[in-house]
Design a protein that fits this description.
Structural class: mainly alpha
Order of helices and strands: HHEHHEEE
Radius of gyration: 45 Å
Strand order of the largest sheet: 1-4
Length: 162
Amino acid sequence: MHTKTMEGLIGARTNMNLVNTPMRVYKEARRKGDLGAMERAMGYACDFAGRAEEYKEVADEGMKKESEEAKEKEKLELEEELEKKREERREENKEFTDNLGQAATVELSEEGQELLNEDLNPDGNDSSVPAADSAALREPVLYTSAGTAKPVETKPSISISM
């Protein structure tokens, strides 16, 4: 809590409590009919009420200043958070671009080449796959938006990038 706010709230409360004493004196003087005491008591009560109003203004200024400081602090925290996120993105992008140029290659052994050739070779006899399915596996097809199958012109290749 800002010091002006505390000072204003404490001062206003104290002066409002101090108004009670002259008001009691005023009420008693009125019962007795003492006009001079009534006027003096009302003067004191007005003074204390005026001071309470002044302290209220001080408290309002303090709260306004406190609000502005809180907004500034929140703005700074938000900027720091955004800067951290930007830095994280820069690092991620840097890592991505550093790794972008690197490509992994896969080499197949002779045994793997033979298996690949058997799958692609229409002369191979694979008894585990029915004849209709094996023909479909041998020739890669591309389906159009109309749902018709078109044979692919290029041979399949395997490429893995990291």
